[in-house]
């Protein structure tokens, strides 16, 4: 069954705990935390202080999607705040291999993320060093954008490669995932769907159940 990782970016931040508990009730598998620094992407969200405070709300694993220029500097803070999975962008300007190694040493699971314009070839060489490959299906920075259709081909290629090589890497898809397109994303090979607006607009529990029934 496909796993669902609601991104709290579209939650009501004045009652985050409530929103997260609702996700848990609806059957969410992971909680997705979109961390933005205003440099790597043109938006700023929240930091480790918030992550630490919402850690008390649920036992679900937290994945920190680091859309920041220096994950090497700050990943540790997100681990100490209670993140179980750290997702690092391939597009950062510092040596990705060193960052992946550093993060792994903090004792968490690691993922590599690629933007829509980054070809799959750019991460192939790192897939034996990560537990997750997160394929962005919108340009990172904001919730509520439309799914970029060409992502489907990238998901298919990633699925094929991972299966052929027998790698233990889960494929996550993030951006513009909605009930109406989830089926084709799953069929293309996604293991985990990240969704913000499609979860938090309307009834959270129902929205998650609807995804899980696909
Ligand atoms: C975008 C974030 C996504 C975003 C998804 O930069 O990485 O996780 O919150 O939002 P929706 O599901 O609304 O496209
Ligand atoms: Zn994200």
Q: Tell me about the biggest sheet?
A: 8 strands, parallel
Q: How many domains would you count in the coordinates?
A: 1
Strand content: 15-25%
Question: Low-confidence parts lasting 5 or more residues at pLDDT below 50?
Answer: none
Q: What is the CATH level 1 assignment?
A: Alpha Beta
> So, CATH architecture?
Alpha-Beta Barrel
Structural class: alpha/beta
Q: What is the global morphology?
A: globular
CATH topology term: TIM Barrel
**Ligands (ions, cofactors included):** D-xylitol-5-phosphate, zinc ion
Give the C-alpha Rg.
16 Å
Q: Mean of the pLDDT scores? A: 98
The end-to-end distance, rounded to whole angstroms, is 8 Å
- The secondary-structure element order is EHEHEHEHEHEHEHEHH
CATH superfamily: Aldolase class I
Helical region count?
Answer: 9
How is the topology of this model organized?
Blueprint: E1 3-6, H1 16-26, E2 31-36, H2 48-54, E3 62-67, H3 71-80, E4 85-89, H4 96-104, E5 109-114, H5 121-124, E6 132-136, H6 151-165, E7 170-174, H7 179-188, E8 192-195, H8 197-200, H9 204-212
Parallel strand pairs: 1-8, 2-3, 3-4, 4-5, 5-6, 6-7, 7-8
Helix pairs in contact: 1-9, 3-4
The chain binds D-xylitol-5-phosphate (DX5) and zinc ion.
Can you describe what's shown?
There is one protein chain. The protein has nine helices and eight strands. The protein has 214 residues and is of the alpha/beta class. Strands 1-8-7-6-5-4-3-2 form an eight-stranded parallel beta sheet. Helix 1 packs parallel to helix 9 and helix 3 runs parallel beside helix 4. It is globular, with a radius of gyration of 16 Å.
